[in-house]
Amino acid sequence: MNNTPKVKLGIVAVSRDCFPMELSANRRKAVVEAFNGEIFECQTTVENEKDMRKALAEVKEAGVNSLVVFLGNFGPETSETLLAKEFGGPVMFAAASEESGDNLVGGRGDAYCGMLNASYNLALRNIKAYIPEYPVGTAEEVAEMISEFVPVANTLLGLNNLKIISFGPRPQDFLACNAPIKQLYNLGVEIEENSELDLFAAFNAHANDSRIPEVIASMEKELGEGNKMPGILPKLAQYEITLLDWMEEHKGSREYVVFANKCWPSFQTQFGFVPCYVNSRLTAMGIPVSCEVDIYGALSEYIGTCISQDVVTLLDINNTVPADMYESEIKGKFDYTLKDTFMAFHCGNTASCKLTCGTMKNQMIMARALEPNQEPNITRGTLEGDIIPGDITFFRLQSNADAELTAYVAEGEVLPVATRSFGAIGVFAIPEMGRFYRHVLIEGRYPHHGAVAFGHFGKAIYNLFRYLGVKEVGFNQPKAMLYKTENPYK
Fold first, then answer.
1. Rg of the chain over all Cα atoms, to the nearest angstrom
2. Which segments constitute the L-fucose isomerase C-terminal domain (predicted)?
């Protein structure tokens, strides 16, 4: 993806001065050998604050942007936590388990104990750090922990260099997509809010842009037989160039950009098209564009992009699966109840690579109000089709009405079942979805938009949300685990 950072890992071993330094250094070397990836091995082992500064200079000079602090023995809690503080980027703490029952005198490191002191000192200094689910292990186990840290670190780097650009206020009756911006700043994210008029002026300034034919050719190639409304492509190409130019001109001090844009109803009457297909194309480039000025939706999409390193989408948690459709196409073929299933939909913002067959169409719902009983014109521009079957992760990070960070994550799949409907849409299945819908989505006052990553990334997303300070991350709890608000008397 061309709009996400690249992690450069480094590892620093720490050693308490009453333990052999060689124990920690040798265990660090073993971790580096076991790690299946590129990692800078700092040769300075930190025993004190002067060592900390020396190690810090080494990793900075090497271009390290994500750091593993490794307790090869008990570790010096002051120096190791100051290292995390002064490093300034994503930091992971892990510790070495003991190696042999025949070496528990001179070769005992007590890092199991040291991790407790490290975690407490991190809290005293208000330092955020990634601590694995079980942070003490062999060289091979610590190497696996580092691999799980990478997508989290990648996303943290992205958020710290992200600008969300929005155009227009939310449409009427879409208060659910509220976006208190204080938490964006707390996350290190910048926000630039603009008027629809700013976007319209920029669009008009790109009329007859010399790049339009090249973009049209790209669209034609991508759409193939789905290019059913070729007459709208010049306007869509003009709009795509407008957004990409705005991104480059308005990045400012930031490296990465996403958009949250107004897309109806006045958009169609003024611009003369719907922007869905362009939104899908930018999202495929790693530049998510959320619908309906959903700022936290765009943020969630970017999180999914960084973690999965793949194209994501944003969908409405939209409608139930009809009982007759469940009976004929799902029951007995897949291990889901009717209430585990639902249909997720949006007008046409899902990238063509995530549709079974993408076709250019017009937005049927908008056409009812804007151009009823006539040939579609200003409502053209959606990319429609069934979403590809396979594993998915449904999730969202949100600032609620009280400006508190909330989040949920649930793993499931898109079923290989024809939707027989319109838009970019799929039949989704999440275990215990009915209960999750009631006791997380409704109880948590979440909006109707959810971000979708194509694959199972629940562990990494959950770890990220906890790192970001989300106190309670909702998930689809198994049947035997009651939600706090769930009535135990069924």
1. 25
2. 345-471
Closest Cα partner for 151 from 485, 401, 466, 463?
Answer: 463
- Strand-pairing partners, residue 130, are 92
The one-digit pLDDT tens for each residue of the chain (490 residues) are 689 999 999 999 999 998 999 999 999 999 999 999 999 999 999 999 999 999 999 999 999 999 999 999 999 999 999 999 999 999 999 999 999 888 988 889 999 999 999 999 999 999 999 999 999 999 999 999 999 999 999 999 999 999 999 998 877 777 767 788 999 999 999 999 999 999 999 999 999 999 999 999 999 999 999 999 999 999 999 999 999 999 999 999 999 999 999 888 889 999 999 999 999 999 999 999 999 999 999 999 999 999 999 999 999 999 999 999 999 999 999 999 999 999 999 999 999 999 999 999 999 888 888 888 899 999 999 999 999 999 999 999 999 888 899 999 999 999 999 999 999 999 999 999 999 999 999 999 999 999 999 999 999 999 999 999 998 999 999 999 999 999 998 7
Residue 60: partners with Cβ closer than 8 Å, 6 or more residues away: none
252: left (phi over 0), alpha (psi -120 to 50) or beta: left
- Say if strands 91-96 and 66-71 run parallel, antiparallel, or are unpaired: parallel
DSSP single-letter state for residue 331: B
Q: How many of the other CB atoms lie within 10 Å of CB of 391?
A: 13
Three-state SS for 171-217 is CCCCHHHCCCCHHHHHHCCEEEEECHHHHHHHHHHCCCCCCHHHHHH
- Non-local (6+) Cβ contacts of 324 within 8 A are none
Q: Please check whether residue 40 is in contact with residue 61, taking contact to mean a CB–CB distance below 8 angstroms.
A: no
Cis peptide before 135 (omega within 30 of 0): no
Q: Do 412 and 430 meet the contact criterion of CB atoms below 8 Å apart? A: yes
pTM beyond 0.85: yes
Buried b (16+ CB within 10 A) or exposed e, 244-258: bebbeeebeebebbb
Name the residue among 404, 434, 433 with its Cα closest to residue 296: 404
What is the SS3 assignment for 389? coil
Token couple for 44: 């300075």
**Which two tokens mark 86?**
């002064």
**Diameter of the chain by CA atoms?**
86
